């Protein structure tokens, strides 16, 4: 039998009646954008994340974009980030007219290297945008110390990491703003596009809420340029149904990861790390294999009907749209090596022991 990379049906089926009733309630309310459903979800999300405020928005990309807009960046301002991430991280920096400054990753965690961040700070640096990649928190002590030393902002890209913690504190709560994605593949997923910002003070909360509504300060009065970044009530309501189950789903992911660690321990591959003081939520279970073996291995997995993903095959500093930055091949070797070596295996809640065994057997057959 095939093992999918993700099966949302297994997650949704037990909640189908509750989700259906909730959607009916929204239909009956007549409030389809923001409204009471969004207010309830925002309150519960802020409580879960341990932040004073949560702002439901239209997507994880828009959460990043809004957060950068809130900094009032100017052309030539620099934002330091990782090249090994989804495109939106750096795309949003460029969209607000700032310059993405890509620095290399830690070869062990594949997260941004705090030492490289410190070395990249210039008088033009306005912010650091770390990414908690695949659900593993960045060392936020080191990032925070650099930000404080140079009086610059921190925006956390926690799109893949809701529920992850660093030293007992939820990611998203360390910087000025934390950004989450609820795209259908995420650990907490909407049935369509949705996202959220979590804000750590009243001022940034007010700014983000204004930006979400075209920069309104009051009805039809605009103090700044914003956009239409509002979350739909349907998505808010569905997310609020699913939020109480997130911890159970996270522990299922962690259990699957622990099982893989036992099944794959002696194979010539690099497994994801459990880093001290962090709680990895395994949005992806990403292994590394020798670059010259990856294409052959993915072909083998396809033959064995094992789902997999490659996130991300081309680091951002080598994308054509960022060629103007002048960072050529070889400039960020750790990111470039990771991009050639990574494969993500099925890890979703509902994955059975038989299926993890099937994945492990397929890998063993290949390397044998």
Structure description:
Strand 10 (216-218) and strand 11 form a beta hairpin. The chain has helices at residues 8-12, 16-29, 35-49, 60-69, 88-95, 114-120, 140-150, 202-212, 233-242, 246-263, 291-303, 333-341, 353-367; strands spanning 53-57, 78-81, 99-102, 125-129, 153-157, 165-166, 169-170, 177-181, 195-199, 216-218, 221-222, 278-279, 285-288, 342-345. The protein is built from 13 helices and 14 strands. The protein is 40% helix and 14% strand. It is an alpha/beta fold and 368 residues long. It has two domains: 8-244, 3-Layer(aba) Sandwich (Aspartate Aminotransferase, domain 2); 246-367, Aspartate Aminotransferase, domain 1 (Alpha-Beta Complex). The strands form four sheets. It has a seven-stranded mixed sheet with strand order 1-9-8-5-4-2-3, sandwiched between helices. It has a three-stranded antiparallel sheet with strand order 7-6-12, with no helix packed on it. The protein has a two-stranded antiparallel sheet with strand order 10-11.
């Amino acid at each position: 039998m095939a093992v999918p990379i993700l099966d949302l049906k297994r997650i949704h089926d037990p909640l189908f009646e509750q989700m259906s009733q909730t959607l009916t309630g929204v239909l009956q309310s007549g409030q389809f954008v923001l409204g009471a459903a969004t207010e309830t979800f925002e309150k519960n999300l802020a409580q879960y994340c341990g932040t004073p405020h949560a702002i439901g928005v239209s997507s994880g990309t828009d959460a990043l974009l809004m957060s950068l807009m809130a900094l009032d960046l100017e052309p030539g301002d620099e934002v330091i980030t990782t090249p090994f991430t989804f495109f939106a991280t750096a795309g949003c920096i460029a969209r607000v007219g700032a310059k993405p400054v890509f620095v290399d990753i830690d070869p062990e965690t594949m997260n941004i290297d705090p030492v490289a961040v410190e070395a990249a700070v210039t008088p033009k640096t306005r912010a650091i945008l770390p990414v908690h990649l695949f659900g593993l928190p960045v060392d936020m002590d080191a990032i925070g110390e650099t930000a404080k030393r140079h009086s610059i902002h921190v925006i956390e890209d926690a799109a893949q990491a809701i529920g992850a913690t660093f030293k007992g504190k939820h990611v998203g709560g360390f910087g000025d703003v934390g950004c989450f994605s609820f795209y259908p593949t995420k650990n907490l997923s909407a049935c369509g596009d949705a996202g959220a910002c979590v804000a750590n003070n009243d001022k940034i909360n007010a700014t983000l809420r204004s930006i979400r509504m075209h920069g309104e300060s009051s009805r039809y009065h605009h103090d700044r340029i914003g956009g239409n970044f509002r979350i739909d009530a349907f998505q808010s309501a569905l997310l609020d149904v699913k939020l109480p189950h997130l911890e159970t789903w996270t522990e299922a992911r962690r259990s699957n990861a622990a099982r893989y660690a036992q099944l794959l321990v002696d194979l010539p591959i690099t497994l994801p790390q459990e880093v001290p003081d962090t709680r990895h939520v395994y949005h992806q279970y990403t292994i590394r294999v020798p670059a010259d073996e990856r294409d052959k291995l993915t072909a083998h997995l396809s033959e064995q009907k094992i789902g997999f993903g490659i996130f991300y095959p081309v680091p951002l500093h080598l994308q054509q749209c960022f060629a103007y930055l002048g960072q050529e091949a070889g400039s960020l070797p750790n990111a470039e090596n990771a991009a050639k070596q990574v494969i993500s295996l099925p890890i979703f809640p509902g994955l059975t022991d038989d299926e993890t065994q099937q994945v492990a057997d397929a890998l063993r057959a290949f390397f044998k």
